[in-house]
């Protein structure tokens, strides 16, 4: 059984998808804790499912490195098999990445390496892309540059707004994340091999 620690910053729709998947007896993973960098509304999903939570707010620390040290300490207290950044909107400090990778994955609303960064959906529309999508990848020290685990395309429709496109992407993102965690748990994806590519 793969133990998951999930990091969020917002509403937690990806977290909820994982929590619901983990309720199934034949899903070989479970969420043991949820962390956030703010008083994220998505923490309510964890509370609903009886999963412990913690919050490490960057503004409470004198430096990004100090925040990262406390975040890592909180994560390591749970000794998870896998850390999932699911809508976690902060770049992790190098020390955190070095300690956790390749057992550290992220979802991104684009087909990386296209459209990295915080405004991927807006950037895809601005570029006139006809296809974008979702990537689940191992986190490295770059911004959305880590080795790709799996991707799935989402078509851009004529007249799409950023909101409409992002909502369609999020539906695919939830499915893809649940599948990626399943593939890691069952050994169909080897994170050490993925990271070595």
Automatic annotation (TrEMBL):
Q: Where along the sequence does the record put site: Raises pKa of active site His?
A: 144
Entry binding sites for (6R)-10-formyltetrahydrofolate: 64, 89-92, 106
- Which top-rank group of organisms is this from? Bacteria
What pathway or pathways are given for this protein in its record?
Answer: Purine metabolism; IMP biosynthesis via de novo pathway; N(2)-formyl-N(1)-(5-phospho-D-ribosyl)glycinamide from N(1)-(5-phospho-D-ribosyl)glycinamide (10-formyl THF route): step 1/1
Question: What is an example of a GO molecular function annotated in this UniProt entry?
Answer: phosphoribosylglycinamide formyltransferase activity
Active-site residues are 108 (proton donor)
User: What residues does the Formyl transferase N-terminal domain cover?
Assistant: 4-181
Reactions catalysed, semicolon-separated, are: N(1)-(5-phospho-beta-D-ribosyl)glycinamide + (6R)-10-formyltetrahydrofolate = N(2)-formyl-N(1)-(5-phospho-beta-D-ribosyl)glycinamide + (6S)-5,6,7,8-tetrahydrofolate + H(+)
Q: Does the keyword Transferase apply?
A: yes
Q: Name one GO cellular component term.
A: cytosol
A single GO BP: 'de novo' IMP biosynthetic process
- EC number from the UniProt entry: 2.1.2.2
Matching InterPro entries, A to Z?
A: Formyl_transf_N (IPR002376), Formyl_transf_N_sf (IPR036477), GART (IPR004607)
Q: What keywords does the record list, in alphabetical order? A: Purine biosynthesis, Transferase
Q: Which family does it belong to?
A: Belongs to the GART family.
**Functional note:** Catalyzes the transfer of a formyl group from 10-formyltetrahydrofolate to 5-phospho-ribosyl-glycinamide (GAR), producing 5-phospho-ribosyl-N-formylglycinamide (FGAR) and tetrahydrofolate.
- Its name, as the record gives it, is Phosphoribosylglycinamide formyltransferase
Q: Which organism is it from?
A: Herbiconiux flava
Encoding gene (name): purN
């Amino acid at each position: 059984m793969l133990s998951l620690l999930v990091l969020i910053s917002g509403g937690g729709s990806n977290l909820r998808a994982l929590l619901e998947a983990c309720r199934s007896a034949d899903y070989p993973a479970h969420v043991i804790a949820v962390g956030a960098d703010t008083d994220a509304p998505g923490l309510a999903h964890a509370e609903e499912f009886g999963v412990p939570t913690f919050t490490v707010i960057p503004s409470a620390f004198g430096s990004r490195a100090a925040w990262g040290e406390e975040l890592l300490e909180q994560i390591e207290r749970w000794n998870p098999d896998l850390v999932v950044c699911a809508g976690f909107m902060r770049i992790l400090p190098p020390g955190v990445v070095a300690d956790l990778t390749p057992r550290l994955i992220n979802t991104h609303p684009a087909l990386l390496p296209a459209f990295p960064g915080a405004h991927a959906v807006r950037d895809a529309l601005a570029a006139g892309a006809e296809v974008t999508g979702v990537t689940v990848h191992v986190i490295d020290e770059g911004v959305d540059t880590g080795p790709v685990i799996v991707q799935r395309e989402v078509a851009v429709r004529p007249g799409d707004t950023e909101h409409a496109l992002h909502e369609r992407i999020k539906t695919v993102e939830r499915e893809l994340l649940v599948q990626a965690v399943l593939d890691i748990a069952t050994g169909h994806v080897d994170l050490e091999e993925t990271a070595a590519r």
